[in-house]
C-alpha cells in the first residue's frame, strides 16, 4: 500500500544526505592532507634515501671497564 496519492509521481533524484556530504568532505580533506605530506617530504627531505653522504663518527675510549 503506497502512501503517495496516485496523481503524484516521484520527483526523481533525492538530494544528498548529510552522511554523503560528510563522506565527500572527509575524502577531500584526506586528499589535501596527503598532498601536503608529499610537499613537506620533498621540502625537508630531498636526500632522505641518499645515505652515502653521511659520515658517522665513533668515539673509542680505552679506560672502559667493559674492555677487560
What does it look like?
With 68 residues, this protein is mostly helical. It is built from 1 helix and no strands. It has one helix spanning 18-44. The longest helix has 27 residues, at 18-44. The protein is rod-shaped and about 100 Å long. The N and C termini lie far apart (94 Å).
Question: Which key phrases capture this entry?
Answer:
mainly alpha, 68 residues
Please specify the SSE layout and strand pairing:
Layout: H1 18-44
**Parts with pLDDT < 50 across at least 5 consecutive residues:** none
Strand content: under 5%
Rg from C-alpha positions?
A: 31 Å
What is the CA-CA span between the terminal residues? 94 Å
From the spread of the alpha carbons, the general shape counts as: rod-shaped
What is the helix content?
25-40%
Per DSSP E runs of 2 or more residues, the count of β-strands stands at: 0
Structural class: mainly alpha
Q: How do the SSEs run, as a string of H and E?
A: H
Amino acid at each position: 500500500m503506497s502512501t503517495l496519492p496516485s496523481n503524484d509521481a516521484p520527483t526523481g533524484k533525492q538530494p544528498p544526505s548529510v552522511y554523503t556530504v560528510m563522506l565527500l568532505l572527509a575524502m577531500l580533506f584526506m586528499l589535501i592532507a596527503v598532498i601536503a605530506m608529499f610537499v613537506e617530504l620533498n621540502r625537508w627531505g630531498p636526500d632522505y634515501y641518499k645515505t652515502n653522504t653521511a659520515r658517522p663518527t665513533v668515539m673509542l675510549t680505552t679506560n672502559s671497564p667493559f674492555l677487560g
